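Figure 3 (text version): structure tokens given as input.
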């Protein structure tokens, strides 16, 4: 049977050629088969890698910690360097392979002249001098110097002046000299130290005679005088109860704007009350345990001798001035409540008022305040009452909210007026005051 067919064309149409049909393929009894390809399993090594890195990090940290504690590696390295980086002085000029490498810069090498030896030696040889002996570098020291490092050697302290040694020690030259003097002298004395330190004092302040920077010298002198003056003031203030370890040398401190604490002000009033003598301040004077029992125990403070920190004449003048503040000054409103009936114009109280408006102000080049931010506001009255009592009343408002308040020291004064019914009966307990 033929695979080709003939199609008879219609009238007016051309014959069409039909492509032959492809023979039909028959698949009998053929089952579809699937092949399962098993992929090899790949192990995940990432956790193991992280574990190894963690162990390595712990090992390195342990070695660093051990090195910081014992300096084992450092000691071995420096010991090895000390045995390898050596030099020796021998007769005649050094051979070319052991020629010393002279430094090119460095303030101490320049002052000692070491940096100029490379220039001086050839010129001296041309002038008729001969090198009788010279140092020889070891091979390790020669390589060390060729790499740009400075050869290690025991420095001669005599080549450093006292200011240079103090600069290296980051201290004052006279402090360094005094430390050496105290170590050498078993029985030091002030007069001996002053006599022996004449040359040291000349070296320490020889820069004062250099006139090429006169303005900087004068400013430095003024600064030193101010620092020493404030240091002396701070020492005196601490004896009177000043609570801080440092006093800022500034114009604000000179005008009286120095930080203080109410307890320290109260202690100062107590010193004035005691005629210039300072006694420790206690909250508890005695203890009584197990009263009316077989275990009864009573304790009291041990007697402490007073320390004279102010001349009695100064204390008396201060007391009179504090009384004037209440009688004629900013504390006049207390006079009506704190006076004796027999002497209505004589106050039995004195004190000092103070108002603080603490701000951070930004000022431009023309001296105009362009910004001002309030930090806090305070009003304080430190007072003494009769011959036995003293204290401090302080009003404190922290934060930016202080800019919205304008109270002064009149506020603690008014508080003290309200306490008059509580304080005035204390006078009757004193034998030297009339009823």
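Below: residues designed for each position.
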């Amino acid at each position: 049977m033929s695979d080709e067919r003939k199609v008879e064309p219609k009238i007016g149409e051309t014959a069409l050629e039909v492509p032959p049909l492809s023979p039909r393929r028959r698949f009998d009894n053929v089952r579809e088969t699937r092949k399962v390809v098993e992929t090899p399993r790949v192990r995940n090594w990432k956790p193991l890698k992280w574990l190894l890195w963690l162990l390595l990090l712990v090992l390195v940290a342990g070695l660093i910690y051990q090195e910081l504690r014992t300096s084992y590696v450092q000691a071995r390295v420096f010991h090895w360097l000390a045995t390898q980086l050596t030099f020796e002085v021998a007769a005649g000029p050094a051979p070319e392979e052991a020629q010393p490498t002279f430094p090119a810069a460095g303030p101490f090498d320049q002052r000692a002249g070491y940096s100029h030896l490379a220039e001086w030696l050839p010129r001296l040889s041309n002038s008729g001098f001969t090198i009788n002996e010279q140092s020889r570098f070891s091979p390790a020291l020669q390589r060390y110097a060729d790499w740009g490092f400075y050869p290690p050697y025991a420095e001669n302290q005599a080549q450093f002046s006292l200011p240079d040694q103090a600069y290296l020690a980051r201290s004052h030259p006279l402090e360094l000299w005094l430390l050496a003097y105290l170590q050498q002298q078993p029985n030091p004395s002030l007069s001996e130290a002053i006599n022996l330190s004449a040359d040291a004092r000349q070296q320490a302040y020889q820069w004062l005679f250099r006139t090429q920077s006169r303005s900087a010298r004068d400013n430095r002198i003024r600064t030193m005088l101010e620092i020493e003056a404030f240091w002396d003031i701070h020492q005196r203030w601490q004896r009177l109860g000043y609570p801080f370890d440092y006093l800022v040398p500034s114009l604000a401190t000179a005008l009286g704007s120095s930080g203080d604490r109410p307890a320290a002000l109260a202690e100062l009033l107590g010193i004035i009350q005691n005629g210039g003598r300072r006694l420790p301040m206690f909250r508890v004077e005695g203890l009584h345990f197990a009263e009316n029992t077989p275990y009864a125990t009573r304790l009291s403070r041990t007697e402490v001798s007073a320390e004279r920190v102010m001349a009695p004449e100064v204390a008396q003048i201060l007391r009179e001035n504090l009384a004037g503040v209440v009688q004629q000054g900013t504390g006049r409103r207390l006079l009506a409540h704190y006076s004796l009936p027999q002497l209505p114009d004589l106050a039995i109280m004195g004190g000092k008022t103070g108002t603080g408006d603490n701000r951070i102000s930004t000022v431009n080049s023309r001296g105009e305040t362009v910004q001002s931010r309030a930090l806090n506001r305070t009003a304080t009255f430190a007072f003494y009452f009769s011959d036995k009592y003293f204290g401090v009343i302080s009003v404190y408002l922290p934060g930016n909210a202080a800019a919205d308040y304008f109270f002064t020291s009149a506020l603690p004064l008014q508080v003290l007026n309200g306490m008059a019914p509580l304080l005035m009966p204390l006078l009757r307990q004193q034998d030297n005051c009339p009823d």
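The beta strands are 87-91, 133-137, 277-278, 286-289, 297-300, 307-308, 349-363, 369-385, 389-398.
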